[in-house]
Amino acid sequence: MTWSLVSVAAVIGVVGAPMAHRLGWLPLGPAFLILLLSVVVSFITVVVGIVTVVRDPA
């Protein structure tokens, strides 16, 4: 479950960024890609944390 969520988020980030760039949605270039990557990583961390707490409550 956790790994599937991480995989989906990673695929969306890796595939979505170049597609958005080609469509002209990423005008800020590398700086925006770094920001997007940090947001994706933060989201993955939050999701994994929530899933871990839900599956294995302390």
Overall number of strands: 0
Rg measurement, Å: 14 Å
Please, how many domains? 1
What level of helicity do the residues show? over 70%
Shape: elongated
Class inferred from helices and paired strands: mainly alpha
How many H/I helices? 2
H/E element order: HH
Overall pLDDT metric: 73
Tell me about the largest β-sheet. none
Can you characterise this structure?
The protein has 58 residues and is mostly helical. The protein has one domain (2-53). Helices cover 81% and strands 0% of the residues. It contains 2 helices and no strands. The protein has helices at 2-22, 30-55. Helix 1 packs antiparallel against helix 2. The radius of gyration is 14 Å and the shape is elongated.
Keywords:
single chain, 58 residues, mainly alpha, 81% helix, 0% strand
Would you spell out the secondary-structure blueprint of this structure?
Layout (H helix, E strand, L loop, with lengths): L1 H21 L7 H26 L3
